[in-house]
Design a protein that fits this description.
- The chain is an alpha/beta fold and 373 residues long.
- It contains 16 helices and 13 strands.
- It has helices at 14-26, 71-83, 95-98, 100-105, 119-122, 127-139, 149-159, 180-190, 211-223, 240-248, 262-267, 283-290, 303-306, 321-334, 340-350, 353-370, and strands at 2-7, 33-40, 59-65, 87-91, 110-114, 143-146, 165-166, 197-202, 228-233, 253-257, 271-274, 294-297, 314-315.
- The strands form two sheets. A seven-stranded parallel sheet has the order 3-2-1-4-5-6-7, sandwiched between helices. Strands 10-9-8-11-12-13 form a six-stranded parallel sheet, with helices on both faces.
- Helix 9 (211-223) crosses helix 14.
- It is globular, with a radius of gyration of 21 Å.
């Protein structure tokens, strides 16, 4: 089975993290060949953040796009015909539109898209783009994988068709790196004392991740006398918005930039915080669960599918400041009620990359078996 995985880049995002892990698992199947294609140029190191983690058995291709224009349609068509894959697996919107020529005129592969975000949040703006996506989805020319229950319901509501598979995202198990001790020492230097709680947020600086809510809420709970620190891991905080966030942050918030060893920070943390306006099935949430970090979050897809408020984490009622502050307060008051082993068990039973990749592999095979060439 020849599998072509397509994504914009291998930057430090959740979908990129997932594709890297998935490809590494799939390549271990007998008779399985995997090619990872990024659309953006690999000359920019930001576009290949995870490339070094790809197995040596995986073929890597960069389409070299620096400015997106009409040529991308032809380049993708030619490349897919050249590679002759059995499966073309597409990640992130609107790459599916860029693949419209092969989808229409080269029907040899099975085309699959995994929907990584809440559909209702991304289906807006460009009318032509939305029309083309609607045409592709409703025509049945492509198989659709959703990644959470809410994700599935939204797709069916908007496009009036069922997804072909619901497959929860997975993540490779996280273990301490060689830098764990130095990370532990670093975090201990940030703490006021041994009782200081460590809360970690992992995300790029962006409107979707809603970090103004995160910073404003954390500032308030520190004003209330809570003994905690917030670690912010991710890129983009040197932008104008990022600088604004840093300037209004209290002294208990630390911006650490991108990290390849986020597991060390999670393993040294008490809780993981997500403030997003929307998600699909956050990879960072899965990582946090695997490390036994208590999830604190807005009510987004993925979180509401896995977390029960007050049982295995804490979820704000809505996206308001008062609600998010209240969520923090409930965490500080009731955190001892959360059994962290249950978080790890949830990861191991439902969210491992091995189980996820095995499900995708079976789905690929079922699609191929059902397809009369």
């Amino acid at each position: 089975m020849n599998i072509l995985q397509i994504i914009y880049s291998l930057s430090s995002g959740g979908a990129e993290r997932f594709l890297t892990d998935l490809s590494n698992e799939l390549i271990e199947n007998d008779g399985c060949n995997v090619t990872v294609l990024i659309l953006k140029s690999d000359k920019d190191i930001n576009n290949i953040f995870y490339k070094a983690e790809l197995s040596d058995k995986i073929k890597f291709i960069s389409l070299g796009i620096e400015n997106f224009n009409l040529s991308i349609f032809v380049k993708l068509y030619r490349l897919i015909r050249l590679e002759k894959p059995d499966i073309v697996h597409i990640h992130l919107s609107p790459i599916i539109i860029y693949c419209i020529l092969p989808i229409l005129f080269y029907r040899v592969p099975i085309y699959i898209e995994t929907l990584h975000n809440e559909i209702a949040r991304i289906e807006n703006g460009n009318k032509l783009r939305n029309f083309l996506k609607g045409f592709i989805y409703k025509s049945g020319l492509i198989k659709i994988c959703t990644i959470s229950d809410k994700n599935t319901q939204e797709f069916e509501r908007i496009y009036k068709r069922q997804s072909n598979a619901l497959i929860y995202n997975g993540r490779r198990g996280l273990v301490q790196s060689n830098f764990y001790k130095s990370v532990n020492d670093e975090i201990n230097n940030y703490k006021t004392n041994s009782n200081t709680l460590v809360i970690t947020h992992i995300a790029r600086c962006s409107k979707q991740k809603n970090q103004h809510l995160l910073i404003d809420s954390f500032n308030k709970i520190i004003e209330q006398g809570c003994n905690a620190i917030l670690l912010v891991i991710g890129n983009g905080f040197d932008s104008n918005v990022g600088i604004e966030l840093r300037n209004k942050s209290c002294g208990k918030i630390y911006f650490l930039g991108e990290k390849h060893n986020i597991q060390d920070y999670l393993l040294c943390s008490d809780a993981f915080c997500l403030s997003s306006f929307y998600e699909g099935m956050p990879i960072t949430l899965i990582e946090a669960l695997s490390c036994g970090c208590i999830p604190l979050s807005t009510p987004v897809s993925g979180v509401i599918d896995l977390i029960t408020d007050g049982v295995n984490g804490f979820i704000s009622k809505d996206f308001s400041l008062d609600s998010f502050v209240n969520m923090f307060e409930r965490y500080f008051q009731n955190r001892e009620c959360i059994d962290k082993q249950l978080l790890i068990d949830l990861y191991e039973n439902k969210l491992s990359i091995a189980a996820c990749a095995n499900t995708y592999y079976r789905f690929y095979k079922s699609c191929l078996n059902a397809y009369t060439r």
